[in-house]
Amino acid sequence: MTSSRPIVIIGAGIIGLTTAVRLVESEGFDSSEHPVHILADHLPNDPLDAYYASTIAGAHHLSFAADEDVNQRKWDSRTFQVMHDEWKNGGEKTGLMLLKQTEFYVGTDNHLKIYEEHPEFTVLDQSTLSNSIDHSISFTSLTMTPAVYLNRLLRRLEGKVQIHRYHLSSLTNLNHSSCTALIGISSPLAVFVCAGIGALTLGGVEDQDVFPTRGQVVKLKAPWIRSGWTRQVGSLDGGEGGERTYIIPRPDGDVIVGGTREQGDWYPYPRPETTTDILRRAREIFPEIIPPYSVHSDTLSPLDEIVEGVLVGFRPSRVGGIRLEVGEDLYLGNEKVTVIHNYGHGGAGWQSCWGTAEDAVDTLLKALS
Ligand SMILES: Cc1cc2nc3c(=O)[nH]c(=O)nc-3n(C[C@H](O)[C@H](O)[C@H](O)COP(=O)(O)OP(=O)(O)OC[C@H]3O[C@@H](n4cnc5c(N)ncnc54)[C@H](O)[C@@H]3O)c2cc1C
Ligand SMILES: *[C@@H]1O[C@H](CO)[C@@H](O)[C@H](O)[C@H]1NC(C)=O
What span is annotated as the signal peptide, if there is one (predicted)? Predict the structure, then answer.
């Protein structure tokens, strides 16, 4: 290893930030030997933007990992374990909320095996369910408040990582003077690509398998909701198929209800008819979402008075799933730069972040040794 060559992480979403934490906290890592820099277009306290998925997400831990998908199951389980420990030690100020999660299935009587690993996993007695539900389970899970959680990661990186707002148009621009002004003139030892949907356009990556899965959600103020509810209509189809309706409470009393999954749809603003449809579905799966104090609950939309906003984001989906591997070597001048990809988390970036961050850092350490 050449002394003081920096390590660069592209992206400051949940994937870039957890990758940075695992790198600087990994045993024997010395950031004075290899200064760590994050370069990102978007940073956690920016106004919400559809292109910055991490700040739009619900988010809950509700895996989509197919029973035979060993890697995804491992990443998701590991992340649950890490976050569960954080919640146990720090409570809800971590931005995490522990709750009872109930899943309703329509048109399918199958649940994913991974849910059986959660605490308090139970198959509900069919006779207690409404006629429209074919199968139901409940278990303990977690929800995350993105702004709170991302800011805690920023604090954990303070003094160890330098974070720069910078748009990198291409990996080969890492030696451009506008970039070396930030990261220094020694060419990087390694680069982690944690660019989410940006991996589609970032030069030197331009992964044509990356595509947006648009999601629209509604934020309500409903502090009386302290449990999670999901209805899956039709098969998940090995991933994220079918229609899903969800209710995701947060410690601060905000509740995210959703949602949609529109593949290839780049429309970055809310669609009013979608908002109406989401609110209707949310009431169907959990009528208690209607304010207990509502004086006109027989009108068309008793939820209107608690709507705080409507959010739209692009999940960074990828044909074939997450890309976590060593990329083609990059040469800047005569120096070889190791490239590690960690992007394409689709609708599962929050619930798989720690698992993929640990794998990405291990992948780098192996590639360098
Ligand atoms: C409505 C909705 C609900 C969701 N719900 C859940 C959920 O319940 N559970 C769950 O696990 N996941 C959920 N997700 C998915 C989750 O949000 C994503 O998987 C996750 O945020 C991806 O994180 P990321 O860091 O890869 O991408 P992002 O958060 O999009 O971050 C990408 C980063 O890369 C930067 N970047 C990109 N290109 C460049 C460039 N060329 N130069 C410099 N910087 C660049 C960006 O500025 C940004 O900082 C949801 C998503 C949406 C939209
Ligand atoms: C950056 O690296 C590329 C690829 O080796 C090289 O062609 C280019 O001249 C370098 N630019 C600078 C400013 O050093």
Answer: 1-20
Q: Strand 7-10 vs strand 36-40: parallel, antiparallel, or unpaired?
A: parallel
Distance CA(171)–CA(176), nearest Å, equals 10
Please count the structural domains in the chain. 1
Q: Is 1 inside a domain boundary?
A: no
Domain containing 177 equals 7-368
pLDDT one-digit tens code per residue, 260-292 = 999 999 999 999 999 999 999 999 999 999 988
Q: pTM (2 decimals)?
A: 0.97
Task: Judge whether 334 lies within some domain.
Answer: yes
| 176 Cα to the center of ligand 2, angstroms | 8
Residue with CA nearest ligand 1 atom 35: 11
The enclosing domain of 103 has a CATH number of: 3.30.9.10
SS3 of 308, please?
strand
Ligand 1 pocket member 52 (CB < 6 A): yes
Query: What sign does the CA torsion over 143, 311, 72, 202 have?
Result: negative
Kindly state the greatest CA–CA separation across the chain. 72
**Span from the CA of 29 to the centroid of ligand 2 (angstroms):** 29
Query: What stretches of 145-294 show up as alpha helix (H) in DSSP?
Result: 146-157, 177-183, 272-285
pLDDT of residue 298: 59
Residue 196 has, within 13 A of its CA and on its CB side, a CA count of 29
Task: Please check whether residue 172 lies inside any domain of the structure.
Answer: yes
8-50: pLDDT as tens digits: 999 999 999 999 999 999 998 988 899 999 999 999 999 999 9
